[in-house]
Specification:
Order of helices and strands: EEEEEHHEEHEEEE
Number of strands: 11
Strand content: over 45%
Distance between the termini: 22 Å
Largest sheet: 11 strands, antiparallel
Radius of gyration: 19 Å
Helix content: 10-25%
C-alpha cells in the first residue's frame, strides 16, 4: 500500500451503495454512505456496512494534504464484531488490544480516533488519540499470561479461563498507551474489579 492521494482540483460528492466491496483480504457487504472529496480531503458520512460478522458505521475524514503524514479523524460505531476475525485482520487492533489474541466471542464499541498515517497507509500508533466504550457478548478469555499468574498465585485454576459476558467498559488511548477504566466482572460467586493499561509497543 502507498498513501492515497486526493487531487486538489476535485470537488466531488458520491452517494454510494454496493452489494459487495473487497479490499485486500477484507470483504464488506451492503455498503452505503456518502463520500465527499475536496481540498485534498476525503470525508465519509454515515458509511454503513456489514463486516466481521457484524455491522459498522463510519463517519470522519482523511486529510491527504501531506502524503508523508496524512491525518485521520473518525467516529466508529461497531456492533457484534467477531473478536478473532477482527484481531487477525487488523494490525492496529493487535497493538491496541493484544488481549484479543486470547479471546473468542463478540464485541461492540463506539469510539473516536484521531491520528496520522504513514506513507503506507499504516497508523502511526503513537500519534493516535481517542476514547470510547466497549461491550462484550459471550466472550471467553483463556491462556492470558497475567490471569494465569493470578490463578497460580491464589491456587485457583478456574481463573485461567474467564467468561466476560455483558462487560461494559470505557477506554482512552493517548501517548502510545491504552488506559481502561475500572470495570466489574462476575465469575461464579466472585466479583472482580479490573483496570489497567498497555503500551502500543
Amino acid at each position: 500500500l502507498t498513501a492515497l492521494e486526493v487531487p486538489a482540483n476535485i470537488d466531488f460528492r458520491l452517494t454510494s451503495s454496493c452489494d459487495k466491496l473487497l479490499y485486500e483480504n477484507m470483504e464488506m457487504t451492503n455498503v452505503s454512505g456518502v463520500v465527499n472529496l475536496k481540498d485534498k480531503k476525503a470525508s465519509l458520512s454515515n458509511l454503513k456496512m456489514n463486516f466481521m460478522e457484524g455491522t459498522m458505521i463510519v463517519s470522519g475524514s482523511y486529510d491527504a494534504t501531506n502524503l508523508k503524514q496524512s491525518k485521520v479523524d473518525f467516529d466508529l460505531d461497531i456492533n457484534n464484531f467477531d473478536i478473532t476475525k477482527t484481531f487477525n485482520t487488523f494490525n492496529s487492533v493487535q497493538k491496541l488490544a493484544p488481549v484479543g489474541k486470547y479471546s473468542t466471542g463478540k464485541f461492540s464499541t463506539k469510539f473516536n480516533v484521531k491520528g496520522m498515517l504513514d506513507n503506507k497507509m499504516e497508523p502511526v500508533i503513537n500519534s493516535l488519540n481517542g476514547a470510547g466504550n466497549l461491550k462484550t457478548s459471550h466472550v471467553v478469555l483463556s491462556n492470558f499470561g497475567p490471569m494465569n499468574k493470578v490463578a497460580d498465585a491464589i491456587k485457583m485454576d478456574k481463573y485461567k479461563t474467564m467468561s466476560l459476558n455483558d462487560v461494559n467498559l470505557s477506554f482512552k488511548f493517548k501517548d502510545g498507551k491504552v488506559n481502561v477504566d475500572p470495570f466489574d466482572v462476575k465469575m461464579d460467586k466472585t466479583n472482580l474489579n479490573i483496570a489497567g493499561s498497555n503500551n502500543f509497543d
